[in-house]
Amino acid sequence: MRRLFLRIFLLFSLAMAAVATVLIVSSPFFTRSRPGVERWQRDVEGGLRERVERHAHQIERGERETPAGQRPAPGTERMAPGGERHGGLHVPIFVVRSDGTSAAAEDVPPEIGAFARRVGDAGEEVSERSGTVHMVGRPVTGPDGQRLVVVAAVRRPPQLVDLLDPGVLGWRLVALAGFVGALCFWLARYLTAPVTKLRGVVRRLAGGDLAARVAPAIAARKDEIGDLARDFDGMAARIEALVGAQRRLVRDVSHELRSPLARLAVALELARRRAGEAAGEQLDRIALESSRLEAMVGQLLTLSGLEAADAPAEREAIDVVALVEDIAADAAFETTGSGVTVKIARGAACTVAGDAAALRSALENVLRNAVRFSDAGADVEIAVAREGADATVHVRDRGPGVPIEHLGDLFQPFFRVEEARDRQRGGAGLGLAIAERTVRLHGGTIAARNRDGGGLEVEIRLPAKQG
Description:
single chain; five-stranded mixed sheet; four-stranded antiparallel sheet
């Protein structure tokens, strides 16, 4: 049996046992002092006394004979029904000798006979409750001088309605509810608090914080939650090591590729001079692919640096509107002759704090991606606005868009929606990944969604400077 299961089982068992114990221990005290029961007993006793007195006076005055025995009625358990009714209950009247024997032909129930003897010995009216039987007896002397005892009895336990008294039960129920509620609250906190903290660490890890670890107090527990915390820490350490090794590999390979690429460029120029026009087309192709490879290596180094950083390299005030206008002017110049138009919708002035060069590179990557996938004659729109505490930049195109199931992968390194077509357009799948890392490093968010009518919209949000 696992330790956490045993703890839960024992705690719930103890809680239920405590409640049951309180109920069992306290029930005799409040049932004895129930106002409802006491009222019922007083009412019944008063009715019995009244009937005993009336029958005793009749016997003393000789107005009635000793009642003959009759058949017991159902529910009276051999108590003769030849008496009267009180409050809906049958009240048998017994006239017995002082020695407890019947003055009539019918046998007297044993408890009535014993009670009559006690009344005869006492020589006065006696009221007594034995179990569920409530009896009142009074000694009387008949016209012939015979000593008799008149007994009125009723058999009926207090009903549920007699026991329910909010004035008595209320505070006990409140106390019980408070005790059980406090115990269950503590139990719930005890079980869920470490799970909640563990969930927060999992979210940090999922958000990219590879150094996220569970608090030592949770990892030191000796139950299943402690086991889970230690396993999680081991998993996080392994992931951090693997990702770190992968990043180092990319960075090292990128650095190592730069030297061969530089030598390749020199060798290419030498080959062009010696070959002349004969191999011009082939050498131009080699130069193109070499430049693409060099650009990819540069992007890899940039991405590796962004992933290793935990804050922007510089912190300066950046006018977002001016930065976007600059980038848009460069893009408009680059798209001359392609038929794609870059339009700017300027909003309120907004300033952010960060690395201007890094943010410029991120916005250029997003804008160039929009231009690259736009057809001739289409417009690419850039909208800058101040929304609450954020500066927002929206880049909208009328390209083919992205399948909805791939929108979440758009900012992953080397991701391509359509592999062959993207290669033809010259994309390596790193531009948007660099933009995402840069924006996140500045405390912002970047997201993409398809536009109504076709095309893609990329929204960048950055914390704006106040004042």
